[in-house]
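pasting for ref
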Amino acid sequence: MIEHNDKIYVAGHRGLVGSAIVRSLKARGYTNIIGRTHHELDLTDQAAVRSFFDEENPDVVVLAAAKVGGINANNTQPAMFAYENMQIQCNVINESHKHNVKKLLFLGSTCIYPRMAPQPIPEDALLTGPLEETNEAYAIAKISGLEMCKFYKRQYGDNYISCMPTNLYGPYDNYDLSGSHVMPAMIRKFHEAKVNNAPQVELWGTGTPLREFLYVDDMADACVFLLENYDGEQHVNIGTGKEVTIRELAEIVKSAVGYEGEIYWNKDMPDGTPRKLTDVTKLHGLGWTHKVELEEGVRLAYEWFKENVDQARM
């Protein structure tokens, strides 16, 4: 059981996921939370990670740091997505073991599941078929991380758990169009088109793929809930169990931004996985469900973007 005075290291504490987990931990009364920026600690550097653990000796670790990006970034940098994420995971998980960390939460991604997995996707669909080619390198790295947690639990009895969040969005997202995911890319494109009075916004693909979206503060709440209540070997999906088409999402974002121009769907660009909905039966059975619905979440995300456009990752 984690305690409110435990020293909790959140790796990636300034990112979309990590910053939300820090907010959730503080809201639940955890006061001893530590983090390091990439400039302060390069998690791909084994010696640096070892020195950090020697110095800080955390009680609990949340591994939310990763090299992430959308279809374009994954397609053009597969070697770096595989290498950097595996390095981060190996270093943090192994040093957590060596320093007797009492609980570790590893955050994966639903892209670990096969391209044609059954829908909604249950946890046991893992490793049952080929991966989606457009994010294969990232998926393989994340699979290796969650399997490592399982193996450390089996061999050493370490209390390492894993969760698989669906598509996330919200404060501190990445709005760089060369590497962002679909939600922040749409928010930025519609916002800039509105500001510049552009008559049209171009979006990739056909708009037909189905996607599930979870507001990042809901995800963080679920992560803290699992830290407090779950010790199982199998990873746990985190999502809403609800889905929309990319075309429907575009209309929701367009409305939230207040853009009145047209949408051009560039069908020469890739769609990615046709459908990716998580089966959240396990999480619901443990006693957690999401609170923020999509329309409200998009509104909140856009409000944050407008207020922080000068410091957002662009």
